[in-house]
Amino acid sequence: MNKLNILCFGFGQVAKNFIKKLKIQNTEFQLSITSREESKKKNFDGIDYQSFQFDEKKIDNNLIKKFEEADHILISIAPVNGEDIVIKKFKEKFNNKKCKWITYLSATSVYGDHKGAWVDENSKTNPTSINGIQRLKAEKKWMELTKKNNLPLQIFRLSGIYSNQYNILRRLKNGEAKIINKKNHYFSRIHVEDISNVLFKSLFNFKKGEIYNITDDKPASNEEVIIHGAKLLGIEKPKTLEVHEIESEMLKNFYKDSKKVSNKKMKIFFNFELKYPTYIEGLNYIKNNFI
Question: In the chain, what are the domain boundaries?
Answer without folding.
Answer: 4-164+189-218+261-275
